[in-house]
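Sample intake sheet
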Amino acid sequence: MHLIFISIFLMAALKWGDWKRWRDYYPTILFLITGDLLYNFLFFNHSMWAYQETIFLEDILTKHTIISLMIMFIVYPSTVLIYLGKFPHEQGKQILWIMFWILIYVVVEFINSRFLHLINHQNGWNNWWSLAFNVVMFVMLRVHHKNPLIAWGLSLLWILFLWNMFKIPFEILK
């Protein structure tokens, strides 16, 4: 089932992504991938969520890491190419565009966690935290595209907030 979701994002990017300006979006794509890689590395023994395959290709997509890497290298670039490529100029439409993308990610995660069991929330994480995370993430993607240093600083503050909020033990780090 993950392959179906990933394929939908890829097809959407092929149709609506701003491929002519992919170099402009490349740093933001790397910013998003780096954040997820950092999460997966730091929280290897204390995951907030974990992907699993329950419906299709269970023998191939056996581990969280495989699915996560597919999401990082297909879904995230696809998202950024469409999200930033079609980002509106008018402020009201910008807010609606951000809300639209938050809704896409929240609905996909809700379906995947609640009905398809493709994602497990752990250690206090839930769909409400995913909503908050997606709000911050989509705002940070736009901020990063305009001013990367501000986005890195704000992201560090967000990470520290989440670390303290979830009382993550420092001992989980190697």
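Comment: The mean pLDDT is 92. The beta strands are 49-51, 119-121.
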